[in-house]
Amino acid sequence: MLDSIRVRRHDPENMLDQLIGFPDQCAGAVKLVEGFQLDGYTELEIRNIVIAGMGGSGIGGDLVKAVVADNCPIPVAVHRDYSLPAFVGQGTLFIAVSFSGNTEETLMSVETAYERGAVLIAITGGGKLAEFAVQRGIPCLTIPARGQPRSALGYLYLPVLAILDRLGFAQGFDFRGDTQEAIHLLSRLVNGFHPDVEDNRPKQLARQMCGKLPIIYAPQSLRAVAIRWTAQINENAKSLAYHNLLPEMNHNEIEGWKFPSDLTRCCFVVMLCDDAAHNRTQRRMEITAQLIEKHTAGIAQVHSQGESLLARLLSLIAVGDWTSLYLAVSYAQDPTPVVRIQELKRRLQMG
Ligand code: F6R
């Protein structure tokens, strides 16, 4: 039984409380960014926006892009690498996001963006990114750096959204109304997902996934959510997981659902659904499920809840985050530590 006693036994660093506190964290992030000064930034001529960050800090950029890009008059890109594309330069609003402030890909890209004359903003818990920003007079929002980066999602995406809203790049998005709706919805969902609730969707999904390879399929509009599900299953449950998007996977991956047959039968598919996705994509998801089901270990659909796009994205993220916690517990894994990520960073530091 995935009850509180069992969860707490495998969760000494308290990922459970991080998940319970997520709606409050979002409210705290909205408050924190209210006092953030961006003097003179509204008068600048911005031609494109780049949000740079890796892993738990990078997903914030994907979420922001999902909310603003369709109505934004200029291109919005999420960047996850050392070097920058040639278009980044004067006229680029470059927002560097790093929880630790010490992620080398993000640091290198922000240095290049600075050298090329981009307009910079930093969002970080401290480290070298904070130092870099302070030394050069770059606006830097300092977020509370407790726990794991992936548990600080509220601090890593809401401030970026608020900044873009303030600078006029989040058209068609009601920052106050949509964040309030999302926070209320998250509070309700979190109550229902608690381990003291005898059964709930994340527990069911974790049971279905346990011992299987989770494959996440989603419409293109839910790309950020699919990335988050995959990363949370990887980092919390220490399980492999993969995602792909529709319609693209209908043009290639769908044919792969045959071999190795022992492997396909060990794959559990989660289809992330949203009523606002293109109706042809929704139809494609139904047909895809019919065509591949007999080769899988099972297929589950998870539907978004809420009105605004932000609330719908976060409702799906909440299901995924809690599923990854219960999957970790099912595998008797402590969800918090990321030993290999840390060891890899340690070895990179040595040269
Ligand atoms: C998530 C996690 C990683 C980091 C990534 C970047 O919990 O540990 O995905 O987010 O390695 O590090 P930061 O976020 O410090 O820039």
Helix content: 40-55%
Strand content: 5-15%
Shape: globular
Task: Order the strands across the largest sheet as they lie in space.
Answer: 2-1-3-4-5
Largest sheet: 5 strands, parallel
Give a written overview of the molecule.
The chain has 14 helices and 9 strands. It is α/β, with parallel strands linked by helices. It has a 5-stranded parallel β-sheet, with helices on both faces. Helix 4 (55-68) packs parallel to helix 7, helix 4 runs antiparallel to helix 10 (223-237) and helix 9 crosses helix 13 (309-330). It is globular, with a radius of gyration of 20 Å. It starts with a helix and ends with a helix. The mean pLDDT is 97. The structure holds fructose -6-phosphate.
Short structural summary:
With 351 residues, this protein is α/β, with parallel strands linked by helices.
Secondary-structure blueprint:
Elements: H1 4-9, H2 15-20, H3 22-34, E1 48-52, H4 55-68, E2 76-79, E3 92-98, H5 104-115, E4 119-124, H6 127-136, E5 140-142, H7 153-166, H8 175-193, H9 201-209, E6 213-219, H10 223-237, E7 242-246, H11 261-264, E8 267-273, H12 279-292, E9 298-303, H13 309-330, H14 339-349
Parallel strand pairs: 1-2, 1-3, 3-4, 4-5, 6-7, 6-8, 8-9
Fructose -6-phosphate binds at residues 54-57, 98-100, 103, 106, 148-150, 235, 338, 341.
